[in-house]
Amino acid sequence: MIVIDGSEGEGGGQVVRNACALSLVTGQPFRITNIRGRREKPGLMRQHLTAIEAACALGGAECEGLELRSSELTFRPGKVTAGDYRFAIGTAGSTGLVLQTVLMPLVLADGPSTLVLEGGTHNMMAPPFEFIERVFLPVLNRMGPTATARLVRHGFFPKGGGRIEVEITPAPLRKIDCMERGPLEACSATALIAALPFEIAERELRMARKLLPDWPEEAFAVRQLPEQVGPGNALLLEARFANVTEIVTGFGKLGVSSEALAKTAAQRMAGYLASRAFAGPYLADQLILPFALAGGGSFTTVKPSQHARTAADIVALFTGRRFGFAQQADGTHLVALT
Questions:
Q1: Pick from 32, 37, 199, 256: most CB atoms within 10 A?
Q2: What whole-number distance in Å separates Cα of residue 21 and Cα of residue 202?
Q3: Are 203 and 233 contained in the same domain?
Q4: What is the pLDDT of residues 202-258, one digit of tens each?
């Protein structure tokens, strides 16, 4: 039985999600204590419960401690079964983070699967749908499997109600090296707005234009969504290179001005553009698991986050494989199994 202290490293829900995924793939049970011990509200939240329930459903797993606010969990995996699954979070909790829990086991299953996930699609502290579809899945698909995602309905915090559909054709994961992102091919800044004043989006784009002066005027646009999915607002900054896409997102929040939201997002995008790294910080987090399960490969990234290093620590517990994070002469970091 692998024992994990959930307060170590980044101390959040990622520890639980990755442990469930790795347990299903490797067949090793685990117990985790101090779940989300570094968060303001520790213990399991609704989206974590749904993620674990999903892992249990498709993996025939047994679980103790599966309740709201639980700080300790024991997970015993069974056999992963491909099929058609639907999971509803019931809140604006992230559908993307539930997907993160079950994707790798289904990618390595013995047949194709479809997933319908309902909840939040665009909320803070999680990658938005566009990041999953355009940034992460294209890299994963280069490794052998085919996973496609479709956004049926947006779901913003606090209402939720979003829906995504994912189709997965499994295949063994092969090692790849992602060292160069290639030339910039296109860029865009899209302000999503639903049931909120239109000027919010306009102010966001005005600030983004100021901080990304090399982007063409036609790259900036407002997308007004149906009133019933709101209220909600997100600014998506996208840079598509020959070999990878990066998306930086700012989420509308009470008490945060349109200008401040856009400034933070634009500065993060400018930082990525100024580097030569293949993966931004959030893509680097997502790549740790598939690269580990492929047994090799490498990628360059900006300064690795605590999330990425924690993911690497969990991988080591289940597989014995360890990642190195080596800073290069050009300021990027090379991430590879040692």
A1: 32
A2: 41
A3: yes
A4: 999 999 999 999 999 999 999 999 999 989 999 999 999 999 999 999 999 888 999
